[in-house]
Amino acid sequence: MKKKMYVAMVAMLTAVALSGCGKGANYESIADTAMATDAAAGVEWADDSAEMAVEEEMGGTSASTVNTDDVKQSQDKIIYTYNYSVETKEFDNFMDMVDARISEYCGYTESADINGNEALGQYRYANLVIRIPSDRIRDFLDMVSTNSNVTYSHKSSENITLQYVDLQSHIKALKVEQESLMNLLAKAETVEDIISLQSQLTQVRYEIESYESQLRTFDNKIDYTTLYLDVSEVKRETTVEKLTYGQEIITGLSDTFYEIGQGLRSFSIWFIVNLPNMVIWAVILAVLFVVVRFVVKKHKIRKAKKATQKPVSEKEDETSE
Question: Closest Cα partner for 132 from 258, 196, 225, 5?
Fold first, then answer.
């Protein structure tokens, strides 16, 4: 009867303990609980027997120990990152090709920022963060290089093998500790022992989930290579290969004539766009010119009439005298 009551209490306290975070697990508390449990059962332990029993139950494993043999035998865990800046004359076609290839390779776009308005005569540019399966990244980069003009490229790598194996060792040790706690919990007969063990089990499970989450993050970064791709729309692509002396002169002259042509093109567009305004202002200025000229001319005529009328009046006065 007493045993059934303890089993019921274990089930109830297990549900309560799993709903929150308990205190940190430690080997001394496990040993103390084991000693208390066996003492209630009439078993006496030596001074160091509790710690030895827990270590034996844990299999002598420590959560902070990394096996160097595991590091040597494990496959290298490397995170690759690429940065590319490209130019294209066919912005829409290139972006459609990038989207199609991402879908084909089962990748995904983490973020995309596109600016510029073709209708307003603005060159467009895009900043993309793309995740591509690591075994297909080379094919994707070849597609980018073939269909655009690459002006900048950079590759970086980070070897996380040691951190990865360390996380695996932590998880392995914690799972052994979890199993030993479950075994001790099965032997516990007092409420205090059960609560203490459940608290430690909750903390151990929390740590296992945290380390497993870090492993999943590492796996995602390893399995999917990150590509930062900057795309610029241009009418004339930049020359990136090394040129000879003569090629530099020819390229320079070509660039100069191209800039002159672009300047004339921009001026002609500005002139045509603003022609209606210039015509209106020309008409207004012409009308003002005619009006001012008429006023000035009329003023001169009046002034001339006054000048001619004055001598005649003076002569009439002399004759009357």
Answer: 225
